[in-house]
Each structure stands twice: as C-alpha cells, then as structure tokens.
Write a structure and sequence with these properties.
Helices cover about 50% and strands about 15% of the residues. The chain is an alpha/beta fold.
Amino acid sequence: MPGLVQLSIDQSCATITLNRPESRNALSFEVIQALSKRISEVAARITAAPGDIRVVVLAGSGKSFCAGMDLKAVLHDPVRMGGMLHELSLSLYALRQLPVPTIARVQGAAVGGGCGLVVVCDFALTHPQARLGYPEVNLGVCPAVVAPWLIKKIGAGAARAMLLSGGTMGGDEALARGLVTQVVDPAQLDASVAELVARLISGGPHALACTKRFLNELDGSNDKAIAIEAAELSARVIAGSEAQDQLARHFQAKPTPQAPRD
C-alpha cells in the first residue's frame, strides 16, 4: 500500500502522489485507502508542527493524473465498490479540511473521481491537451460523490449541466467552465506549480488558515454528513442492474490488447 500513494515534503510543501501509472492512477480500494492515510499523515503533521507544511500538492505519476474509479471492480463486487465510494468521499472531505492551500497538478486524464480530486483542491493547474470531466451518467453511474465539490467550485446550475450531460473536455474548456484555475503549456506545468507554491508559502500561514477555514464555513465544506450521504447514494445506484449492465457492455466493447510480436 505505501507505494500506491507517495508522500514527500520539501521546503514546506507536501506532495501527495498517486502512484499507479500502469492503470493511469485509477482509484482502486487500495489506492483510496493509501490516499486517505497520506492525507491523515499530512493533517497530523500540520497539527503537531504548525508551519512545517504550508502547501499541499496533489499529483499523479505517469501520463495521467487520475482516470477515476477502478470500475472493473464493480462487475465482480458492487458491495466492495460501496466501501470504495465511502472511503473516497471521506478522503475528499479530509482533503478539503486541510488548513493549508491545496493544489492539483493535472496532466493527461482527470476523470470522474479523479476530477473530484481536482475540484476539491483550492487550485488546479493543467494543460490544453488534458481531458477532464464526469462521464458517470454515460455508464449508468451516479456522480453523487463529486457533486457537492463541483457545485462549490462552479455553482449549482453549471454543475447540474455538467453532471447530467456527462462526457469530458480539454484543458482550455475546463478553465472556461471553472474546473481549473490555470492552463499552461505541458512543459511549463511543473514550473507553474512551483511558482504558485512559492507565492502561497510567502503568505501569512495564520491568515491563510483562517481564510480557508472561513471559506469552508461559507460554502458548506464542513458538512461531513453530505459526504456520507453522497457515497451511500452512489453505492445504491452502482449496485443496481442498470449500472451493472451498462458497465458490463462498456468493458466488453473495449478491444482486447494484442500480444506483442517477437
């Protein structure tokens, strides 16, 4: 489990990295548990040593930030998926509760639950070629777990249109629709994140913590009951026959990878 989500701390910046690149950092039960553990470690360190961590960056290794929930598991064990959804929803809540600014470094794909990780952060940087969005309804799945955070990010009306229509979008459209805060050239993504980290670290830590705490109160981010209710709703829908049938057709329709030739 420790290798699935890595934590590094450098000059007051903690970086939490999803580390399942062979699966585009898809959120398996093990990945979600590891993510929850890393967030808890960061929260505990902030409490024990105030000022030690001033900014948190959430990243993904490899070509994609996060391809979303590992939906193949749904076909075999919907009950386990309910546990995954519950753990993910609480992880999103815990990430929002961190009293320091959070930044999502988004390359490649950020889909479904992966895009939920993007919008729960205070800032999100990506590039034009990235693909972001919420295709859950296209698969018969309810995006309730991400809905509260998307509403807080872009507003109820815009979130309603996005979640009901499904699909994904490129980085420029994601910026225009409010999913991300900055779009840069792919080669400049790391430098742009580092620049934002430096700017945030230069601010007053107490002022930032108080501001974030008040913003969380204003937009309802502190309501843990909503996160639990969202997970329960998503779990009920995904365990139903409609979701199971559509997911089965989706995976059956995917071409079987060809064996490499000698």
